[in-house]
Amino acid sequence: MDSNTSSSVSARPVILYGGAFSLYTGRARSYLIKAGIDYREEPHASPHFYDSVLPKAGGRRGIPTIELPDGKVIRDGLAIIDHFENINGEQFSPQTPKQRIVSRLLDAIAAEGFLRPCMHYRWNFDKDNEEFLLFHFQTIFQEKDAEQAARDRMNFIKKTVNPAWGVSPENHKLIESLHLTALKKLNAHFSQYPYFLGGKPCIGDFGMMAPFYGHLGRDPKPLSLMQFHAVRFFRWVERMNRPEPDVGEFTNKKPVYLPNDEIPETLVAALKHFSIDYVPESKAACETISEWITIHPDVPPLTEVERGLGTCTFEVQGATISAMAQPFRFYALKRVQDEYDALSQAHRTDVDALLAACNMSELLDMRLPREIGRHNNLEVWL
User: Fold this and answer.
1) Where are the alpha helices (DSSP H) in the chain?
2) What is the DSSP string of 117-151?
3) Residues 108/333, Cβ–Cβ less than 8 Å
4) Rounded to the nearest 10 degrees, how much is the dihedral formed by the CA atoms of 27, 28, 30, 33?
5) What whole-number distance in Å separates Cα of residue 112 and Cα of residue 204?
6) pLDDT per position as a tens digit, 204-218
7) From residue 308, how far is each of 108, 215, 312, 324 by CA, in Å?
8) Cα–Cα distance measured from residue 131 to residue 138, given in angstroms and rounded to the nearest whole number
9) Pair 286, 309: CB distance under 8 Å
10) How confident is the model at residue 7 (pLDDT cuts 50, 70, 90)?
11) CA-based nearest residue to 328, from 289, 376, 297, 279
12) Which residues, 6+ apart, have CB-to-CB distance to 135 below 8 Å?
């Protein structure tokens, strides 16, 4: 490649294939904005996406997916952020032990820990949400009758996906109670800090944008709850979608992480609340998936990991919940465990005390008997 061609390629923007209403696009979009990466967002319902991008994404129609100026394709928000963190010197990855663990932990929890409120508040409040969602779902269909296709897709999600994530009429009140308390805990934190770990975002901030923007911070019903009960948290959502620090209501907030590896008590309180359902679900899912691995020992390496492997059942505040056991939860959680394993004994002691205060110590031992990796833009069994 000559210099003129190289300059032309580098001048092109990154193409982000996603959607404003997409849960996981929120993570990648926010990172691109805060990192100052030139990008253009396009819908994935296009001939170019299906003909040129999808084959490079492992054939899996998942968003977010990015297309780099040189034509390389990266599918999934975790992998997209990993790519840019690796080439940009980990600009949003804290370098101190407790903050680094907490950043990864927030990212792991955000990956699948808020699916119930995301689905409940999107699909069980038609009066508030239906017209809003119908407009957005039409944008992903190329059919002549896009409206009917959108309605069919929405009805399918209501009937099948909601129950898969453990959203049932019996636990609606529990979901709402946990969510409203989460909003209040997060609002208390963002009343004191512009980001989770101080004056600049960490990987955990971007992870939390997945559930709290595309679904819980944008759909009419949950947005109204956030604006009413947690305006400071709502400001964080706004802040995470802006290139500037946007910390005008705070004084003396330099764009750095808190000194001395500090984890604010307000964040500990939020994590402790998240543990109420994240820990028992993770434990049950780990047991279910581990059993599946044991009875399927001959699955060849590099076989794509399915989104769900059976159903796990667990209790949260006296209520019984059944939900799909999702291997990706442990792909994300292993990143926390790997960070922990690399620590010195002295630093592990500090992290142990922190995780105990958050009621999350058990997560370090929730490891599948077979690891999950990535190959050809897919999560695969190693």
Assistant:
1) 3-10, 25-34, 47-48, 77-87, 97-112, 115-123, 126-138, 146-156, 162-164, 172-190, 203-212, 220-229, 231-240, 265-295, 328-341, 345-357
2) HHHHHHHS-HHHHHHHHHHHHHTT--STTHHHHHH
3) yes
4) 170
5) 13
6) 999 999 999 999 999
7) 17, 21, 10, 6
8) 11
9) no
10) very low
11) 289
12) none
Taking the C-alpha atoms of residue 323 and residue 277, their distance in angstroms, rounded to an integer, is 12
Model's pTM, two decimal places?
A: 0.94
CATH numeric code, 3-87: 3.40.30.10
Give the model's confidence band at 9: pLDDT under 50 very low, under 70 low, under 90 confident, else very high: low
pLDDT score recorded for residue 140:
81
Q: Tokens for 350, please give them.
A: 């500090």
Exposure b/e, 197-224, CB count within 10 A at least 16 = b: bbbbbbbbbbbbbbbbbbbbbbbbbbbe
List C-alpha distances in Å: 16 to 130, 201, 205, 222, 358. 26, 21, 19, 26, 35
Question: Count of residues for the chain?
Answer: 382
Contact assessment for residue 210 and residue 110, using Cβ atoms and an 8 Å cutoff: yes
Both structure tokens of 300: 């060849």
Q: What is the residue extent of each domain of the chain?
A: 3-87, 97-139+149-381
**308-365: per-residue pLDDT in tens?**
999 999 999 999 999 999 999 999 999 999 999 999 999 999 999 999 999 999 999 9
Q: Is the pLDDT of residue 8 over 60?
A: no
Q: How far apart are CA 323 and CA 119, in angstroms?
A: 13
Q: Look at residue 10 in the predicted model and tell me its pLDDT.
A: 61
